[in-house]
Design a protein that fits this description.
Length: about 270
């Protein structure tokens, strides 16, 4: 499923990355190798003249309906997303109660403390009920996830206000290049079923540059694949996403290749749980 939007606009920035992933032959081959017959459903664009917030939440409402339709067809929703806010729609539609979130950033900003003006850095705050109450309520089926039911893996690139917010939160954070034992401990209390979110900038920059916000000190590809396995080992995963890939930053194609490997691992484990 393709949600190719960045700041509510289609096929630009990280939205262009989502569109590229949706058509990447290697990624499709990885899904087919896991015995899936992948089909790409692209979420339709919102009114480009609407304000950014209105556009974005309109796109989330459409995505929620599309995810719900995919589940009704007994498909596994793997959302290739330009931004992390897509998670709010996927969780609402899938009924996930626990969240495994791999990301270099905490995404816990709110309009009251954010200085960048970037809506997507509020994604986990929206998902856990921290902001945009009226807008999030328009997503059919949305109910906030308790912060303690979120495992945030690989987080490391934080402004002071973001570090403070994470320290105050009950989110189960495992920083930087995590060890398998730390992942297992963070996942152990999570309720089922699960939603798995992989922001590709969680990967260490030695693997590649996922976007302009990528940073060193993160996990290797092998560690991320291990976290995918740990998530499925913990219990049923009802939906997943790869997000925040900007091809302009990925000069050597390292992240594109890594995305295919991660998608393939998710697909293989999703097939096993059938």
């Amino acid at each position: 499923m393709s949600w190719p939007f960045d700041r509510g606009l289609p096929d630009v920035g990280m939205g262009a990355g989502a569109a590229l992933l949706a058509t990447d032959p290697a990624l499709h081959a990885a899904l087919e190798a896991a015995d899936w017959a992948p089909t790409v459903q692209r979420v339709t664009a919102a009114d480009p003249d609407a304000p950014e917030v209105a556009r974005t939440f309109d796109l989330l409402r459409v995505l929620a309906a599309d995810v719900r339709g995919a589940l009704a067809r007994d498909a596994f929703p793997l959302v290739l997303a330009g931004g992390c806010l897509s998670a709010c729609a996927t969780v609402a539609a899938s009924g996930a109660r626990g969240v495994v979130w791999l990301d270099a950033h905490a995404d816990l900003d709110t309009p009251e403390d954010n200085t960048s003006g970037f809506l997507d850095v509020m994604a986990l705050s929206v998902l856990t009920g921290g902001c945009w109450r009226a807008q999030r309520a328009t997503i059919d089926g949305f109910a906030p996830i308790a912060p303690g039911d979120v495992a945030l893996l690989g987080v490391r690139d934080l402004a002071p206000h973001q570090a403070d917010a994470l320290a105050r939160s009950a989110v189960r954070a495992v920083a930087g290049a995590f060890a398998p034992s730390a992942v297992d401990a963070a996942l152990a209390p999570l309720p089922l079923p699960l939603y798995l979110h992989v922001d590709l900038d969680v990967l260490d920059t030695a693997v590649g540059q996922a976007n302009a916000h990528a940073s060193p000190g993160g996990p290797s590809l092998e560690a991320v694949l291990g976290a995918v396995d740990a998530t499925f080992d913990h219990g049923r995963v009802v939906a997943a996403a790869l997000s925040a890939y900007d091809p302009r930053a990925d000069g050597d194609g390292g992240i594109l290749a890594a995305a295919g490997a991660i998608a393939g691992r998710i697909a293989a484990r999703a097939r096993e749980q059938r």
